[in-house]
Amino acid sequence: MAQDRDILPDTVKPVNYELSIYDLELGGAFSYAGTVKIALDIVKSAKEIVLNTHQLEIQTAELFTDSAKTESSTKADKIDYDEKQQRATLSFADAFPATTKASLIIKFKGTMNNTMAGFYRSRYLPAAPHVPSVPKDGDHVYMFSTQFESSDARRAFPCFDEPNLKATFDFDIEIPDDQVALSNMPVKSEEPSKSGLKVVTFEKTPIMSTYLYAWAFGDLEFIEEHTARLYNGKSLPVRVYTTKGLKDQAQWALVNASKITDYFSEIFRVDYPLPKVDLLAVHEFSHGAMENWGLITYRTTAVLFDEKSSDQKYKVRVAYVVAHELAHQWFGNLVTMDWWNELWLNEGFATWVGWLATDHFNPSWNVWGQFVSESLQTAFALDSLRSSHPIEVPVRDALEVDQIFDHISYLKGSSIIRMLSAHLTQEKFILGVSNYLKAHQFGNAKTNDLWAALSEASGQDVKAFMDAWILKIGFPVLSVSEEPGQIGVKQSRFLLSGDVKPEEDESIWWVPLGLKTGSGSAATTNIPLTGREQTLRDIDETFYKLNADATGFYRTNYTPERLMKLGQARAQLSLEDKISLIADAAALAQAGTGTTAGFLALVENFKDEDNYLVWSRILTSLGNVRTVFADIPDISEGLRKFTLKLVSQAAEKVGWDCLPNDELLTLQLRALLISSAGRAGHEGIIAGAQQRFKAHIDGIQPLHPNLRLPVFRVAIKNGGATEYQSLQHEYKTTTSIDGKEICLQSMGLVQSPALAADFLAFLFSDAVAVQDVHSGSASLGANPATRTALWEFIKANWETKVYPRLSGNMVVLDRFLKVGLDDFASAAVEEDIRRFFEGKDNKGYDRTLSVLSDTIKGNATYQERDQAVVKEWLSAHGYM
């Protein structure tokens, strides 16, 4: 057993699974029976076989061996369960011999649970008449699907549930004959079974990890395209499946899936390896999507989009998530990380290449600007805390891994890949990736295998300059000092709390400086900083900027004078440069190496900005400042006035009218500015929002899809019980795919304790799906008027409502706490949270508790340190 991980004994290795699922009880207990025949390679003679199982009842287990031409079989005479480790030990009376010809046949029973893990059921309101066999629950009905990553295949059938224990899979399932079954591979046959039932059998899969295995069934329909590219002489069928009545909203995902499959086959120089591509919309889903090989599953808002009724931001989301999951078909599925500590190999790469594909097909969207504004800054936010972790993080127990499906694995991982690709050039980077995929296809690989392939393709020692980025926690800030004709650059670790200790600042990162000088059109991207500090000479002082286009994963700390000059030289900055300049100034202000006054003065230069992505970063960073000072009334009011003045001109210019030829970014800009100005107190926009809200609710004039969120939010913030109750009714009756999510994001802006209490009760009622509760907690937590009520509710109802409802899937509970409690700026609240969770079993969300502690303490320190200077600046500029 490896010392750095707790894994199954190496006595046996699986070769093939033949799994049959039958006797499904579609109602009541939702039980099922199964038989799995596992072809084994017995590596060592032993008397026990240990495998993974969770919430299953093993009825019998029988081992068949063929050694030295002697066939024998023996039944396990003892079956022991280790609930904590989710393992079963099958004990046999006599030792079995080592052989490559053995099979283990297990009969078992399980449950189609309602926790969005393993083999589970999804409850939904049908959009069209359904077939008779679909199980009903009042007005709701059910579909069934699986979610196995990271360690939940064991909830569905006994198996060797580790990523490097790959095997092939044969599968059949008995279902009602009027429903449709799907799995990783195409259907091989359908045969009648008992009355009203059929057995659907699927083709054998390639060798793959258990977490990528999948199946689903229900009252499904599909739309289909075929790839333009040929695979073994044929176009591949690409389908998007939905429950009945929703397939017309799958067209956008289908178009993207077909062309992206071809795009990745071409750039990776490895053909898509399966005979079909299926995407499935699942009504209850804990994640955004799951990359099961050949049967990719999605929450509905990540795969369905209606041009007439959906907010345009979901168009970007669907395009990107489809691309991300398809990237995994190669990077993760064809070549799989060896163990969960290298999860970033899957997620970091899929995130970067997902945006690469989205940009390739939608260049007008400026997706790299979106990446810098959102993904990069989100990664910075977590990695600037002491409670962060390295990209490659030790994982001893696979049951711990869900918490590292986080912004470090996805967003820092993808940011590091973006930095490396920019340095090596995209062409050489993709060539290295292609070589990596070819060398390790159908197997497992490690980070160093990728570095070796990239080194060979580029002629550079990639491991030498990437190890610190992968193996060390944190990232640097580059402090810039100026002398005539030259600048000095010094790196040190960046912590948002601003109190880096010497022992925390020992890492030396390889940093590509990306220096822009002169006109701003030239960028020298290959100058690396390899030591603690360096002097750059012959600098044109009229204009220079480090980290061209924000491809490097670091912040830059300029002198206050240079920061102002850069703000005034906006015409010479790229979109990504503007975003990173604003974000860096805000973060440095919080850390104390810059000032909030400097940040406010910088963003004043942008009041005539017309780009959505720049405004999004300005208002997000400014919103963070307002959050920190929200409980200091005079500063809070001054910042509100500052925000109102900053956005009013742009909001009035963009106006209310959504025109047919408006580009996507224009629609998003309008929504953002209306929401921001209305919530900051712009009287005209408040009146316009209230008028439009009433017309929409009364059925007189439905809102444009892109105006729902800003109008709902302004109406709720400036309204009362009538508006809140109207929106709750909207939530219950909307048929728009994104409608419920938009309502939950808006209802949390209520201003009274009574309405906050009602909304919390609503969130924990059957009206709100478990997967969506976090949308409400995020909205309440971001609202200064309600965040304390949210925390008091959690404390008062932890044992009776919160933990029981959300802990069936720890991903859901972890996310609920993370997004609901991270906006406090009070040391007393941080201590209260810490004390409340002391002594409780925090497994599944302990990392988040550490992140919350660091975040809240950092906010409190920032508030205490900067409140005098912020007050002084606001007063001097007429906002107080």
UniProtKB/TrEMBL annotation:
The active site is at E325. Binds 1 zinc ion per subunit. Its cofactor is Zn(2+). The keyword Transferase does not apply. Keywords: Aminopeptidase, Hydrolase, Metal-binding, Metalloprotease, Protease, Zinc. Its EC number is 3.4.11.-. GO terms for cellular component: cytoplasm; membrane. The record marks Y410 as: Transition state stabilizer. InterPro entries: Aminopeptidase_N-like_N (IPR045357), Aminopeptidase_N-like_N_sf (IPR042097), ERAP1-like_C_dom (IPR024571), M1_APN-typ (IPR034016), Peptidase_M1 (IPR001930), Peptidase_M1_aminopeptidases (IPR050344), Peptidase_M1_dom (IPR014782), Peptidase_M4/M1_CTD_sf (IPR027268). Zn(2+) binds at H324, H328, E347. Residues 15-212 form the Aminopeptidase N-like N-terminal domain. GO terms for biological process: peptide catabolic process; proteolysis. Residues 252-469 form the Peptidase M1 membrane alanine aminopeptidase domain. Residues 543-857 form the ERAP1-like C-terminal domain. The keyword Hydrolase applies. One of its GO terms (molecular function) is zinc ion binding. Pfam families: ERAP1_C, Peptidase_M1, Peptidase_M1_N. It comes from the Eukaryota. Belongs to the peptidase M1 family. This is Aminopeptidase. It comes from Eremomyces bilateralis CBS 781.70.
